Structures are given as C-alpha cells and as structure tokens.
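Predict structure. Chain length: 242.
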Amino acid sequence: MTLREAQAGGSHVVWDGDRVETADDRLFDPQWWREHNALTGKAQGRGAAWFVDGLDGQPWVLRHNRRGGLLAQINHDRFLWPGTARARSLMELRLLALLHARGLPVPAPVAARAARSGVIYRGDVITERIAGAQPLADRLLREPVPATAWQMLGSVLARFHRAGVWHADLNARNVLVDDADNFHLIDLDKARLRTPGRWREANLARLGRSLDKFRLADNDFCFADTDWAALRGGYQAAFANG
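Prediction complete.
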C-alpha cells in the first residue's frame, strides 16, 4: 500500500496509489457512480454510506462524515477546518492504512477527502467492502452466534486494544461478522491510538450497552448474558496468553 496525498481544487485527498492511479472529487460523489452504473446500494446509519463497484474491480463503500447528537439537527456534516493533519476523514484513512498493514481486521482503505470551503470542510472516506459481512446487530436479529464466536470477538477486541486502538463508536452495527464468523471493525471515524488505561474497559462497556439496547428493543434479538460472558472470557484469555 502506497498512500499518496494531493490538493485537488478546494479538496485535500489521500488515497492508496496501488489501487487508484489518481483521486479527485468525482470519486466521492454518489451521482458520479450512479451515472456510470456503478452504484449498487445504500446503507443507513449515523453516516450515509453507498456501495459501489470500485475502479480496481473490488466492491467499495463510500461514506460521508456526518455529525451525531443534537447538533446534527442544524449542522449535519460541516466541521471547522483543523488542517490536513487533523481532518477527521484524512486521519481515519491514515489510521486504517496503519491497522491494515498490521494485520488487524479492518476494511482496506481506498481514499479520503476533506473538501474545504474557508474555515469549514466536509469529509468522505472510501474503503473496500468486506465480502459476505454484515453488522453483528443484523445477524443477531435473525439468529444467534455460537459461544465460540463470542469468544473470538472478545479475542479480536483484545487485539485492537493491545495495539492501542480506541474505537470512538464501538457498537453492534460497527462490528461486522462474515459467513465464517470472522469479525471486523468498521467506521473508525475519530478513533485514536492510546496508551494502556481504563479506556479499554469503557470501550467494552460501550459495546455492551449497545447490545443491551438492541435486546430491550426486540425480544427476538439473540443476545444473552452468557454470550457477554463468553466475549469477556475470550478478551481476558487473549491478554493472558500475551
């Protein structure tokens, strides 16, 4: 992977030069993909995401950075310009490149843009779509996952935490599970590398609250206290085994 950076009009773009020869604003425009019959779907969440047939022949996900919380009602996607080193979309792509190179289960990064207008910018990120994967929340709405999978998820989360990765929004929709019960983390917007600390337990607790929220909302949601115990067991075992 060779990350490249360039200024394109009012946008600063970072991209994987091994996947895309050059990147410009067209790549981040869903309408451009639609006009080229390459827009294959759309997912809804905190940030809108579009599925496209990528230029390298692989499926991609294009995600537009959006705000959460009450502020989103009056300002859903504009951010104060902090410079190219700290723009959220660009930081996320650089972090994904680092984690992917380390073998952690994250989407392969493709490109990111910070489109600036004066002191304001909007951000977009493109990643490779993980084949056969779906949000853990969607899977659990249909069927349970075995205890061994929960243990594996705990082990995967321990790998991220041992690498110092703090996920800003660790919830049951940002954990993907594929057909072989392999787990991946997505949407690393605002994620950071941190030194060991209490944030690890807080990060796990955030996921636990998310799972409990889904369980309270739907009696058919397949999540039990024993599942959480299996996850915690896999997490602790991963740390114990070094």
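Summary: Residues 199-217 form the longest helix (19 residues).
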